[in-house]
Amino acid sequence: MDLYEALGVSRDASADEIKKAYRKLARELHPDVNPDPKVQDRFKEITAAYEVLSDPQKRQNYDLGGNGFNGGGFQGGFGFGDIMDAFFGGGASSRGPRPRMRAGQDALIRVSIDLAEACFGTDRELNVETAILCTQCHGNGCADGSKPTTCSICNGRGETQQVTRSFIGQVMTSRPCNSCQGFGTRITSPCPECAGDGRVRSRRTLDVKIPAGVETGNRIQMSGEGEIGPGGGPAGDLYVEIIVEEHDYLVREGNDLHISVSVPMVSAALGTEVTVKTLDGDVSLEVKPGTQSGAVIPVKGKGMTRLRGNGRGDLFAHISVTTPTRLTKKQEELLRALAEDRGESKLGGEVASKKDGGLFSKFRDAFRG
Question: Does one domain contain both 144 and 217?
């Protein structure tokens, strides 16, 4: 191994560049951050490289063809565990065999519901395809009458050791046993149903209760309903993510609902009653005489159910006064007579003053937020 390549620096790198490169790698590879055995071996390599290249005398010795360590370096069978002893005062411990039984993964399924179901809650039947316990071997992965045998290559340790020579002398490295994949045992007669995994794929039906008041993005956790782990390990959890479909005419904003209601010009002027469709059914809404376009009429308690609390939000009806686009001759004459009677014979408009209320105030307030 080339020490400069280990740290990812050039051979003419400055002391600051070497220090910076080592700190960056150490933050990524430190055993407290990443416990992966392969990563730990890499961490030991960069630490050994920095030990040499950070010392001017050792670096010069290495550049001249030496091993970089005083007194001829580490000789006579020093391994990486010994290096860690020298640097940090502690040796590397044995990792041991991997357990065959491991926890299963969590699963996620998305469910679409309509706005009424989100408001009042509902029950859904879900068809889920996931990993379940193998009923033939009950999770041990072995065929009937057989059991795992101790690996003859690693003698049950789950890892093998290899001694190589390098610039620091003899180095002993450990890695998972290729014969048993690190388990320490081998399944010589695997279960024909699950091929030794201890679990099989299957489709099953689950009932999920969706509470009132949910909204898009909410997740319902169903403990232990996820995938069974390898070797018959404990199951993970199943998360049901809710997606609330858009409504045809109602718009949700938190716990409140909004609806747009069109009212003819004459009806808005004289006052009227309109029927509004809500999630609870039809509701009669009073439009007072002189109601302007943009007015909002609240309907208490006709909004969404509060997910974490009591009661419901409100429904807000936004009034849009519609002006006729086509008039008969008689209708036009009647409107002109009305304008004459109201002193509005000068058909037109005027710029609103800041002192005036009404539309100007709403326009101003909208921009003030």
Answer: yes
